[in-house]
Amino acid sequence: MNKRLVILGAGGHGRAVADAALKMGYRTIVFLDDRAAGRCIGFPIAGPLDRAEALRDGETDFVIALGDNRLRRRVAMGHDLPWARIVHPSAQISPFAELGAGTVVLAGAAVNVCARVGRHCIVNTGAVVEHDNMLEDFAQVAPRAALGGSVRVGALAQIGIGAVVKNNVAVGMGCVIGAGAVVVKSTEPGGVYVGVPAWRREKGAAG
Ligand SMILES: CC(C)(COP(=O)(O)OP(=O)(O)OC[C@H]1O[C@@H](n2cnc3c(N)ncnc32)[C@H](O)[C@@H]1OP(=O)(O)O)[C@@H](O)C(=O)NCCC(=O)NCCS
């Protein structure tokens, strides 16, 4: 691959995305960031996010590497760019799974047969997205979280680090599932759930 990747966001997730992209064979990386300048892991930060369109050419892909789901959605809605799928070479993606444009799958993650992952999702390091899962756009599965078979994750939902979601459960849109939680029943949209088994901590906190 002789392409350049522009990464929108030069924070920790941006660096992880760059690392995966280089291992995929991207020739070089350019970051954009509203708050940082200079260089990031040796690659230039070429300006704020709204410079993205100016960097468009036939040999450049783009990806949004902002861990905040709502911010990622806002940036995606504001730009019409060729969004790349970034998949670390050590991730296991079934040939019968689907990944939407702009989605990132990091090292050691698994996306199993007939899973469908929407646009601009994050499947983070070592996460497991089992067979027949459906992740809607802008959802995120944190490192080492595991989703059993036929789980549905609503748009903008966040599954916390090391959390477990039992098979056939639906996680509502915009839910936040806390680190280490075990979700055994479907969750209401926008709720924050923690604990084992997970309970709703409060209403409306997921914004
Ligand atoms: C659940 C979560 C969203 C709550 O965040 P918050 O609203 O900022 O909560 P706070 O840190 O203020 O903690 C509030 C209370 O909830 C408890 N709590 C926080 N996270 C918890 C969790 N995962 N499980 C159980 N209890 C938790 C705290 O101990 C605290 O209890 P207290 O009021 O008795 O002292 C957050 O703690 C979390 O788990 N986020 C997931 C992070 C993650 O996976 N990131 C991955 C990045 S790659």
Automatic annotation (TrEMBL):
Site entry (Increases basicity of active site His), positions: 132
Keywords on record: Plasmid, Repeat, Transferase
Active site residues of this protein: 131 (proton acceptor)
Domain of life (superkingdom): Bacteria
Molecular function as annotated in GO: transferase activity
Pfam families found in the cross-reference section: PglD_N (PF17836)
Domain called PglD N-terminal: residue spans: 4-76
Residue sites binding acetyl-CoA per the record: 161
Binding site for substrate: 33-34, 67
PANTHER family in alphabetical order: ACETYLTRANSFERASE (PTHR43300), UDP-N-ACETYLBACILLOSAMINE N-ACETYLTRANSFERASE (PTHR43300:SF7)
Protein's name according to its UniProt entry: Acetyltransferase
Lineage of source species: Bacteria, Bacillati, Bacillota, Clostridia, Eubacteriales
Gene encoding the protein: wecD
